[in-house]
Design a protein that fits this description.
The protein has 282 residues and is an alpha/beta fold. The chain has a domain of 177 residues: NAD(P)-binding Rossmann-like Domain (Rossmann fold). Helices cover 42% and strands 16% of the residues. The strands form 3 sheets. The protein has a 7-stranded parallel beta sheet, with helices on both faces. The protein has a two-stranded parallel ribbon with strand order 7-11. Helix 1 links the parallel strand 1 and strand 2. The radius of gyration is 19 Å and the shape is globular. It binds NADP nicotinamide-adenine-dinucleotide phosphate. NADP nicotinamide-adenine-dinucleotide phosphate binds next to helix 1 and strand 2.
């Protein structure tokens, strides 16, 4: 049985579908029963919080493999420590963790937090596979409100290009790592297949939803102030601002073809992702 954390999120929801389609026994966890009520009846559900030891014990019991989506901003990595410890106690044979490509960035809090979680897994002795994706296509869901209300996207990354990855492709790689041999002890750098600037992404999305969208260039500091005002934690915003600056100055451009190599199919295009999520923007 494969225990999937984050099963209601962007990656986890795709992963559950892929694993069920492969005929795997799957267990998920969510704090909200309603968010998992639509799942295939064969999927086992544990309802509760990953900080609750009895819930995590119940969820990991009998698991052969665990898909770990980190609880990123968490005091002393409490939930992830618990998951790793209970995974070890349950005798599971592998943890596949969604980490981040930011582990490579010196002094970046997002990178440091992910690396600390990787170290906890390494120290536990449970065999591991780490996924190191760059920015997700689903980050553009954050544009939805301004697109709907003002037909605008506010962009701190200038014309810097990235190769955003679809959560579907991260899930595809995770499914391969969880269900085939040869992935233990490996860390995979993952990107999408196209290098696109934010204005280019906005143009694609505009075509898909059939309305003009203005891509408004704003300084990194202004975007950071707005993000803090919207309620995002300041340390998160500081690390995001560092990433935006790196993209803006093209210091954070990287591309890999690991999705195609590992899944055997081309990475999803941004246009396909936009078509599949069109309803969020109209
Ligand atoms: N966005 C990026 O560009 C990027 C880049 C590199 C790496 N990453 C990594 O990817 C992660 C985001 O992945 P995603 O977009 O698939 O996630 P997401 O859509 O934000 O979903 C978060 C999931 O975590 C679960 N969760 C959170 N706290 C929980 C708790 N206390 N107990 C139980 N479940 C809990 C939620 O479950 P319920 O709400 O159902 O309980 C939900 O399923 C980031 O945190 C980061 O680690 C992101």
């Amino acid at each position: 049985m494969i225990f999937v954390t984050g099963a209601t999120g962007n990656i986890g929801s795709e992963l559950v579908k892929l694993l069920v389609a492969k005929g795997e026994a799957v267990r998920v966890i969510s704090r909200d029963e309603k968010k998992v009520s639509h799942l295939d009846p064969a999927v086992e559900r544990v309802i509760g919080d990953r900080h609750d030891p009895s819930i995590v014990r119940k969820a990991t019991q009998g698991a052969d493999k665990v898909f770990m989506l980190a609880v990123l901003f968490d005091k002393n990595h409490e939930a992830d420590r618990l998951l790793i410890e209970e995974t070890k106690q349950a005798g599971a044979g592998q943890i596949v963790m969604v980490s981040s490509n930011a582990v490579r960035l010196e002094g970046n809090l997002i990178g440091r937090l992910h690396r600390e979680k990787e170290e906890l897994i390494e120290q536990s002795g449970v065999p591991w596979t780490f996924l190191h994706p760059g920015g997700f296509m689903s980050n553009s869901l954050q544009w939805a409100e301004a697109i709907k209300s003002q037909s605008k996207v506010f962009n701190p990354m200038g014309k810097g290009k990235t190769a955003p990855i679809s959560p579907f492709d991260i899930a595809g790689v995770a499914a391969v790592a969880l269900t085939s041999a040869g992935h233990v002890g490996k860390a995979y750098d993952l990107t999408g297949g196209e290098s696109l600037s934010t204005p280019e992404q906005v143009e694609i999305l505009s075509k898909v939803i059939g309305k003009p969208i203005e891509c408004v260039d704003i300084p990194v500091e202004v975007a950071a102030e707005r993000a803090i005002a919207s309620g995002l934690p300041e340390p998160l915003v500081k690390s995001l601002a560092q990433l935006w600056e790196q993209v803006r100055t093209e210091a954070y451009t990287f591309y890999t073809d690991e999705v195609e190599r590992l899944t055997g199919r081309q990475a999803q295009t941004f246009e396909t992702w936009c078509r599949e999520h069109r309803s969020a923007f109209v």
